[in-house]
Amino acid sequence: MQHFIVTLNKGELFQVQSENEVGSANLGQGDLTGSHVVANKPIAFYSGALSTRIPFGQCCWDHLYEQIPPVQTWGREYFTVPLKTRQQDRYRILAAENNTTVQITGLAPIQLNRGKFEEFVFFKMNQNGFSPINQF
């Protein structure tokens, strides 16, 4: 894990790009999920990928971008709604705190530590720690 400090003035931006995944010739194909960002003033934080295949091995490279809200605004209980055009939907849950227990109806509880994530196909979940839910 690499730590660094960046000082920005109003209106400036800073971009971080991952290294290549093993075997990929495309720059930035790694996954930075779980990265920790701290700021002493309000900032907008975006995460994304220029080209991704979710789940891995699926056809076609798509763009994925999302603004990441501050941890204190994340929830603890979520209901998901399946997309009409799909047979299943994929979700990723990321833990903001150590010892986060994720409970998904019909599955055994899952323990996650800060910065760790799991991907699932499901419809309802609860957890004792804060986390965002992303639908793919």
Sketch the major β-sheet. Answer: 4 strands, antiparallel
Low-confidence stretches: none
Total domain count: 2
Relative strand content: 25-35%
What percentage of residues falls in helices of 4 or more residues? under 10%
What value does the average pLDDT take?
79
- How many helices does DSSP assign? 0
Q: Numbering strands along the chain, what is their spatial order in the largest sheet?
A: 3-8-5-6
User: Which H/E pattern describes the elements?
Assistant: EEEEEEEEE
Can you give me a brief rundown of this structure?
By secondary structure, this protein is mostly beta strands. The protein is built from no helices and 9 strands.
SSE topology:
Elements: E1 46-52, E2 62-67, E3 75-79, E4 91-94, E5 100-104, E6 110-112, E7 117-120, E8 124-131, E9 133-135
Antiparallel strand pairs: 1-2, 3-8, 4-7, 4-9, 5-6, 5-8
Task: Describe this structure as you would to a colleague.
- By secondary structure, the protein is mainly β.
- It folds into two domains: 1-68, no CATH class; 74-135.
- Helices cover 0% and strands 33% of the residues.
- It has no helices and nine strands.
- It has strands at 46-52, 62-67, 75-79, 91-94, 100-104, 110-112, 117-120, 124-131, 133-135.
- The strands form three sheets. The chain has a four-stranded antiparallel β-sheet, with no helix packed on it. The chain has a three-stranded antiparallel β-sheet with strand order 7-4-9, with no helix packed on it. A two-stranded antiparallel sheet has the order 1-2.
- 8% of the residues are buried.
- The model has no long low-confidence stretch (mean pLDDT 79).
